[in-house]
Design goal:
By secondary structure, the protein is of the alpha+beta class. Helix content is 41%, strand content 23%. It folds into two domains: 85 residues, no CATH class; 126 residues, no CATH class. It contains eight helices and seven strands. Strands 1, 2, 3, 4, 5, 6 and 7 form a seven-stranded mixed sheet that branches. Helix 2 crosses helix 3. The structure holds zinc ion.
Length: 226
Amino acid sequence: MISPPTPACEAATYDGQISNLRQEFNQITDPRATNCSYSLADLLMCVFAMFSLKYESLLDFEKQTQATTANLKNIFGIKNFSSDSCLRKVLDKVDWKELRSLFKKQFDQSRKLHIIDKYHYLEEYLLVSVDGVEHFSSKKIHCPSCLTRQHQNGQTTFTHSMLCAVLIHPDQSEVFVMGTEPIQQQDGSEKNDCERNASKRLVDWLSTNYKDERLILGNCLGTRFI
Ligand SMILES: [Zn+2]
């Protein structure tokens, strides 16, 4: 006789992960007034779907076929798809620190499911790769928080970058993001200074949130045990 799936088995499935994520998105503080057409969880789920499926832009995601939209609603549990402009307007106001905390929750869930056991290195350590990611770049659009790059021809490029700490293992093809830290204007104008200053904040956050784990952090600027 086949045993019914346990809660742990269900949580390990893709549907279980999506359902958990949806519940977590429901807990994120909504920065808008209460009478909104789209729930914040739907908006966040749209963005998650967009990145999961590697859409090239918000506009591409908005302009897909009805059949694809119906599939995405089904797979990601999205009730209403919002417009590109609505997504931009709302997401800018969401507290990124609340979203960052979801990486730790996901790690705890993976720990319970013994997925993290496969990532042990030298018996008890976890290898964490830290690197910078530029996730916005424009020569026209910018905001007061943008990092800037001056070119010899007088042009300026406006960017947003963040450091990502990612759990890796030489024998595993999947990696897990453990935490992120935005690189801020005050972190400096040189790339290495920026990453070093942001990495101090990231290391503090990782030390606090993963205090029960033994981490080996590495990037192009050096290696550190925490
Ligand atoms: Zn900006």
